[in-house]
Amino acid sequence: MEELEMTLLEGEERMDKAIAAFRHELTTVRTGRANASLLDSINIDYYGVPTPVKQIAAISIPEANQLYIKPYDKSSIKTIESAIYASPLGLTPQSDGNGIRLILPQMTEERRRELTKLVAKMSEQAKVNVRNVRRDLNDDVKKLDLPEDDEKSSLEDVQKLTDKKIAEIDEITKEKNAEVMGK
After folding, report:
1. What gap in Å lies between CA 104 and CA 91, rounded to an integer?
2. How many CA atoms lie within 13 A of 64 on its CB side?
3. Is 45 a residue whose pLDDT tops 70?
4. What pLDDT does 27 receive?
5. Same domain as 77, residue 48
6. Is residue 25 a contact partner of residue 172, using CB atoms and an 8 Å limit?
7. What range does the domain containing 9 cover?
8. Where are the beta strands (DSSP E) in the chain?
9. b/e per residue, 6-31, with b = 16+ CB within 10 A?
10. At which of 103, 129, 145 does a domain end?
């Protein structure tokens, strides 16, 4: 029985990690307000090494719709600008010689709808990840050679855990969509 409990705990931990990864991924979705995590996905070639912008620059939020990137090394301003242009953020960097200002445009209704579709896609991927853990857990439970009733009960526990985690993902998705839609 102890082996079963360990298996279930490990499975729950893996599901929690999938949800944490989903939450982190959602931080890259624009909501109309400036957020430094928008730049998390942008890496630049810094002396031959792909480096996240946040590691080579101070990022501040001077206004609700602005980000200011001040590189520690001013020679990297052009490289950061190029990376922002090439990114899917759709923002135009404005350099003042010391740093880069990003002004986030007001989001249109159409863009908000596109972002909710993106959130839905991310949500579905998180659910798939949780279901993959469920599949692995079911396989692990079956390998334990438990009595039939115990095995059936354990498989039901795995399903209940999965349902709980899927509901958690749905709730996170609902909150993010409300944020994106400005409600």
Report:
1. 7
2. 4
3. yes
4. 80
5. yes
6. no
7. 2-28+108-180
8. 43-46, 49-52, 57-60, 66-71, 93-95, 100-103
9. ebbeebbebbeebbeebeebbebbbb
10. 103
Rounded to 5 degrees, φ, ψ at 35 are -150, 125
Could you read off the pLDDT of 153-176 as tens digits, one per residue? Answer: 999 999 999 999 999 999 999 999
Spatial distance between the Cα atoms of 17 and 7, rounded to a whole number of angstroms = 15
Q: Cα separation of 25 and 83, whole Å?
A: 19
* Mean pLDDT of all residues in 81-87: 86
Average pLDDT over residues 123-135: 95
Evaluate whether 118 touches 82 at the Cβ level (below 8 Å).
Answer: no
Residue of 126 and 24 predicted with greater confidence: 126
113 and 131 part of one domain: yes
pTM greater than 0.90 (yes/no): no
Let me know: does 52 contact 43? Beta carbons within 8 Å.
yes
Q: Which amino acid is at 44?
A: I
- Domain boundary at 84, 103, 122, which? 103
| Residue spans of beta strands (DSSP E) within 88-167 | 93-95, 100-103
Query: Scanning the structure block, which residue is given the tokens 């445009």?
Result: 105
For residues 131 and 163, is the Cβ–Cβ distance under 8 A? no
